[in-house]
Amino acid sequence: MKGHFQISDTIRCDVLIIGAGGAGLRCAAEILENRPDTNVIALTKVSHPQKSHTATAQGGLAAVDPKDPADRPIFHMFDTWKGSDCMADQNVIQKISEASWQQIIWLENRGMHFSRDNMGNLSKRTFGGHTINFGEAPAYRAVFEADRTGKGILDTAWGETIKRGITFMDQSIAVELLFKDNQCAGCVVFKQKEGKFLRILSKATVLATGGCGQVYKVTTNCRQNTGDGLALVLQAGLPVMDPEAVQFHPTGIVGPGILASETLRSIGGILRNKDLEPFMQRYAPRMKELAPRDLVARAIETEIREGRGVLNPDHKIEHIWIDLRHLPENVHDEQIPEVTGFFKKFVNLNPKTDLCPVRPSVHYHMGGIPTNEFGEVETMERAVVPGLFAVGECAAASFHGFNRLGTNSILELITMGKFAGQRVLEYLNDFPRSTPEPKPLFSEAQFSSYLEAKGKDNLGKIREHLRSTMTEKVGVFRIEKEINKGIEILKELKERAEKTALSEKSLILNPELITRWELDNLLAVAMVIARAALRRKESRGAHYREDYPERLDEFNDHTLIRMPQFDTVETGSRRVDMSIFEARGEHHENFGRIARIY
Length: 598
Fold this sequence. Notes:
Layout: E1 7-18, H1 22-34, E2 40-43, E3 61-62, H2 73-83, H3 90-109, E4 125-132, E5 137-143, H4 149-162, E6 167-169, E7 172-180, E8 183-191, E9 196-207, H5 228-235, E10 240-241, E11 246-253, H6 263-266, E12 270-272, H7 293-305, E13 310-311, E14 318-323, H8 329-334, H9 337-347, E15 356-365, E16 369-370, E17 376-378, E18 384-390, E19 395-396, H10 408-429, H11 443-452, H12 459-473, H13 480-499, H14 511-535, E20 558-565, E21 568-574, H15 579-582
Parallel strand pairs: 1-2, 1-9, 2-6, 9-18, 16-19
Antiparallel strand pairs: 3-5, 4-5, 7-8, 8-9, 10-20, 11-15, 12-14, 13-14, 14-15, 17-18, 20-21
Helix pairs in contact: 1-4, 1-10, 2-3, 3-10, 5-14, 12-13, 12-14, 13-14
């Protein structure tokens, strides 16, 4: 970008939050409630914070009510540990589970309209893998706002930050983290509407950029979820953790891939194959439709592989059915109105009278930027990176291990957002008076290359080839030969992308420029997913290797992977925290390397 790339301005703030979804806003709210004079800037890639992906979360968030006569936090901890395939960190499990109900109260006291039962109490749902008494029976643990729970959380947190003076920068992307003496000091921002780059110098920087579902062809994720936060830390020479742990939600609506919430199964929806057989009895005899997501997703894919799927005539995709026809009309109208509307709008079916087509769709990334239990970003050697924090789906503390239980994601948003906010406040109290002033190292060359390329390829086709490759080669079922093929294709796509010219060279409101930048991010994230999947020669949670179908103790640690240059990777490991088991307290035996049977 010779002659074009220049920093138009430098802005200073106390806290910079990159991403304005549920986790970022909960973090901001915690900071502003406790230190009202804090100068907080939040970047959002989209046109308004309320367009963030958190708004699409449907079914609820798990939290144990202290007044519940049957449920206890220890049961939630056990379910999360077992669901994670013994890969979540137990210190994080305990910290989040024990704080969960207080965060429900925080949301309700600030205006969130939780659904209530006829007695005026908060309504509760059961979700896959959530049980009482260490697996004895399903737990009714998830509180909700109809089937738009994420929207309620986002609106509530947004309102709390707005009234306390946060500054939002809409349609703005962070293109480079800035460091001085190993301390994060802010980032370079590209403002899409103005076509300008600016430098934001901050005392504390919080990454809350969301997921990376667009790496795959069929996903429940929004268009903007391109793994930007992970790409930023990889560019900075920092690691990501467990990138191979990608969750495929069992029920994406065939065609658009939009989420058909797990609520549908929690309220009695039945999965059926082409013969209308309710097949989950074969795969999870006790929990059936309420088994964890990775088990249900593989069950659906197995039914299709073995010839018991249904070919959709419109999309030429095989699927199975979810049957909701037997549910009472008031359940359709009061508990799942939005999902019902999705089926009517996108596939022209009425769930009250029709079978609905679903198939696994990429939904959530359990891996991410490695942090400790306070949201502080860590290096390969587990040293804290001063001034840098990460929360939400882009981060990995790790609460979810290798399989996230339904409702635990938005619980993590509000709890880890709070914990990180508290740690940011502590960091600000100790911050030195002088602020380092680093200069950009990467972004000038990166954006210059976009404008200088001369090739005739098509960015959209490269992106779709990438997504198809990941779906086919590093999908629900994985095998070494196909992963290797995928890696070679990714290398070819990277070369093609680097040569591809932009048809429009303007920096102002140029969607092609953003698409090009996103493509680099997708390629980087796809490569570390594939490399980590190749390295983990076992099956665990959502990572299923057909050539290594058993869980193996030699892979009990988290994967750490750096990529200083594209496809030049360095790998390491991080010990899984087993502090509940090692403390040898009551029920500790349930937190060992337990079998995962449902």
